[in-house]
Amino acid sequence: MGRMPTVDDVAQAAQVSRQTVSNVINSPGIVRETTRQRVQEAIDRLGYRPHASARRLRTRKSSTIGVRLDPLRDGISGAVLDRFVHKLAEQADARDLRVMIFTADGHADELAHIRRLRDGSDVDAFVLIGTDHGDSRIAWLVENRVPFVSFGRPWGAETPDPHHRWVDVDGRAGVRDAVQHLRAHGADRVAWIGWPSPSGTGDERRAGWEESCGLEGADRENLAIATEDGVTEGRLAAAALLELPAPPDAIVCASDSLALGATMAAQAAGRAGLPIVGFDDTPVAAAVGLSSIEQPLDEVVATALTLLFGEHGDDVRPNPDSDEEPGHRLLVPRLVERRSSHLALDGNPGA
Amino acid sequence: MGRMPTVDDVAQAAQVSRQTVSNVINSPGIVRETTRQRVQEAIDRLGYRPHASARRLRTRKSSTIGVRLDPLRDGISGAVLDRFVHKLAEQADARDLRVMIFTADGHADELAHIRRLRDGSDVDAFVLIGTDHGDSRIAWLVENRVPFVSFGRPWGAETPDPHHRWVDVDGRAGVRDAVQHLRAHGADRVAWIGWPSPSGTGDERRAGWEESCGLEGADRENLAIATEDGVTEGRLAAAALLELPAPPDAIVCASDSLALGATMAAQAAGRAGLPIVGFDDTPVAAAVGLSSIEQPLDEVVATALTLLFGEHGDDVRPNPDSDEEPGHRLLVPRLVERRSSHLALDGNPGA
DNA sequence: TCGTTCATTTTGAACGTTCGAATTCTTCGG
DNA sequence: CCGAAGAATTCGAACGTTCAAAATGAACGA
Fold this sequence. Notes:
Helices cover 44% and strands 15% of the residues of chain A. By secondary structure, chain A is of the alpha/beta class.
């Protein structure tokens, strides 16, 4: 196997010029049909593939997006982000985009990586997974005109930044739906296990519970627990709830990890039928028959790519200058019902 | 912000030639110290970064490795591969390598992707995650001289292919250790829940159980169950085991998913203290206090990169021609003990 | 002072592609 | 059969880097 054929080799083989070969590949419309076929045949015969780096050098775009892989977490909740990355790779491929991954230690380090990848023209645009309260990365990216989109709202910004494109899922609505569903099926005292404030996502989800739980005063205080994410934490929190004088008759959790823990606690407390709803609809939830609120990841990814590249192309759009077009979108999650959400209520004995 | 500075801009600013700037970056040793400093200062001042594509075009290497993201699985077992990818990104970064990901539908599609990435000089080398019995990809990659390394042995090849570099973890030894550990702590009847044959990894792990369980005849038959991977499957299998006339007093599973299911079954059967050992030591195992056999992923990744790039550099070595150097390595896993493996035996009541 | 050797720096070309302008080929009305 | 307009193709240059070879400078012994 010698060296790869170049555009010149093809040109020679097809008796045309370099540029015509290039045209056949990039704008087939402008070349005469008979010529196009002849060239195409030569391409196939020689097995020619454009050299990506040469093309990028010339066109000054890499058709590559960069994503930082989050630090490993729980392994349950983390799975959402892994699924996100997976789907990103899938949909990027459909647009002829490549995906480059990297890891980083904290925001500063992440920006350093982004800078390197960007300055080297390795990557055209970035996808930020998750946003913090007053996220320092956003300002920097906008400032440095690095095209990006985030999966996550700009929490805590008074004035929405028109340069910042984002997609997010309306966790509040999702939780609200779940609570209402449980109450419609007879639950009176729906408890909440969530994360400590301040947490953009966490506070939002909790708000969904607050506005729909129909509880007041002491009940409202007692039936909400904030804890770090994790199976163990969920177990402990649920155990505490179940020991209350007036225990809950259903629990909604901010994550599947917490919900899995809660399920274990319920079983241990002899209340295997307690309806429990998780969040993210991870495969684990499906496996153990846990109801969960599903984020429409396919749509999230599709929207992110559309915001970055427009409806179809692979040309990066710079961060928007004004707010003519809405540079963001809030998607609605969906409750996936499984045994856990109506075990006790519909008289269905636990496993 | 105008265009990025080029090597020429730096050269002009530092009053030297293009090439000297290049040397400062690539072989600082050969340029006089005073000059080096002057150039370096100019680089810093202008914020110059080499244009990756230009460099790649010239040097004919991309310093990028490609990995296919496996189809989404269980979410528990899948987490291992996600962790693998994560660590790959980390260690690649340390060597100044980039990681490009892609997804594919089946082996043929994967090879098509590999071909595209490779022919376009987007990617220098590939990492295969997981290998099948008589994996069709390996022959193709060797045939087409695509540098690669696999995380997984060449199952079922009579003659080891000297062109094929691989790393793998000795699952048989891991399971053997776990069984011996359980027996040393008093277990007599250690059961096995694994995957249906033929499965390279699965058969190997089962072999570890067979050679150390100390069971014979009917016991040996009855105490081993083969089932697809998954929490539900593990639950059912364990439930069946526990209903045997002579039930096991410990269970070793081929995955954490199975083990999680087994744990649930044990609790449901009122045998919460039954020692259960999983495989892969996923975060879920840690979260629910499940003992598990841990694959040394850091070492796996480090070895894979070393096989591909040598001890330190970022120059891809072609697939080896002969078998002078051992182009593969088998690493030893480690049993991580948690409550689940000695709950019943050491008289420690379950949670 | 001169040639020699080694260290350091510079020069010209090349990597494979696409852009922009220029050229040639077709077609068609008069 | 000519000229013009449009379609199709070609040509020269450029993208930013590094390689290979050539040129320059410094150091040293004779």
